[in-house]
Amino acid sequence: MNGMEHKRQEPGIGREEQVRETREEDHEHHEHHEGHEGHEDHENHEGEEHGERM
Amino acid sequence: MIRVAAVGDIHLAPGAEGTLRPAFETLGDHADLLLLAGDLTRHGTPQEAAVVAGEVAGLPVPVVAVLGNHDHHADRPQEVTAVLAAAGVTVLEGQAVVLDLDGTTVGVAGAKGFGGGYAGRCGSDFGEPEMKAFMRHSRTCADGLRRALGDLAQAGTGLRIALTHYSPVPDTLAGEPPEIHPFLGSYLLAEAIDEVGADLAVHGHAHLGTEHGITAGGVRVRNVAMPVIDRAYAVYHLTPRPRPEEPPP
Ligand SMILES: [Fe+2]
Ligand SMILES: [Fe+2]
């Protein structure tokens, strides 16, 4: 679950073409999954137990 | 030691109820506060904000947020803010909040921030009115952050955290196409952070970016966009240090 394949670019930013693609994807996705965009590919909804020491 | 949990770009909307709540309910075991780095909704409607409110209401730790560009899309940021505030979330825009966490004062300065780009590759206040307005908004956001950080310096909080949606540095954009960097953040935010100083700077917005970065002045920057951290929240452990230039509180 680490590669780029499950990441989505911030919608609304990019070349106009990309924006249009994103919108179409959003639209399709919307129809099929009832509006759950943004992190729908992220099944990891756990928090972090061991923090980063700074 | 203070444990700071943070996440941005959760982009919630009706249908996503309950997706983050189970993880957030464990926050009391892992963190002392939760920062939300903007893009909490998809399109910035009060209905979407209500879903966010449902995920964070009554959590065992204080919740501090800034809004993102998506939370502005419906032109109803005040309503979004009100819905979140009613759920106990402190929403900051050019403001700071001081939390007393087990005897340590933790200050969070928050501002959405804006684009404009980074050294050598940035917009400037020149030309068409639209371009000037773009850069003016970027400067206004950075000025708000600077002012809020200044308030915290004055208050002498044990820790100082800068919370934005847009990125203060290009480091945490690694993975994003360089062509869109000017839409992902602004060096003006880093200037504000370095001018006053901070223990940590947290942002979101760059979904394809990288978690770790640092400002020219040495302030650690973390991109906590959910697609980047790939979990419900990241946790950073900060140890308050006395600052020589500031009198002890
Ligand atoms: Fe986002
Ligand atoms: Fe964003």
Summarize this entry quickly:
Chain B: Residues 2-207 form the Calcineurin-like phosphoesterase domain. The complex is a heterodimer of chains A (54) and B (249). Chain A is mainly α and 54 residues long.
Please provide a written account of the structure.
The complex is a heterodimer of chains A (54) and B (249). Chain A is mainly α and 54 residues long. Chain A has a domain at 1-31. Chain A has 1 helix and 1 strand; from the N terminus they run H-E. Chain A has one helix spanning 16-33, and one strand spanning 52-53. Chain B has 249 residues and is an alpha/beta fold. Chain B has a single domain, classed as Metallo-dependent phosphatases (Purple Acid Phosphatase, chain A, domain 2, 4-Layer Sandwich), CATH 3.60.21.10. Chain B is built from 7 helices and 13 strands. Chain B has helices at residues 21-24, 27-30, 46-56, 77-86, 129-155, 187-196, 226-229, and strands at 2-7, 33-37, 63-66, 90-91, 95-101, 104-111, 117-118, 121-122, 159-164, 200-203, 212-214, 220-223, 234-238. In chain B, the strands form 3 sheets. Chain B has a 6-stranded mixed β-sheet with strand order 5-6-9-10-12-11, covered by helices on one side. In chain B, helix 3 packs parallel to helix 4 and helix 5 (129-155) runs parallel beside helix 6. Chain B starts with a strand and ends in an 11-residue tail after the last strand. In chain B, 55% of the residues are buried. The mean pLDDT of chain B is 95. The chains are: A mainly alpha (54), B alpha/beta (249). Chains A and B meet through strand 1 of A and strand 1, helix 1, helix 2, helix 7 and strand 13 of B. Bound molecules: fe (ii) ion (2 copies). One fe (ii) ion (FE2) binds at residues 39, 68-70, 165, 205 of chain B. Chain B: GO terms for molecular function: metal ion binding; UDP-2,3-diacylglucosamine hydrolase activity. Chain B: Residues 2-207 form the Calcineurin-like phosphoesterase domain. Chain B: InterPro entries: Calcineurin-like_PHP, Metallo-depent_PP-like, Metallophosphoesterase_sf, UCP008292. Chain B: This is Metallophosphoesterase. Chain B: It holds the Pfam family Metallophos.
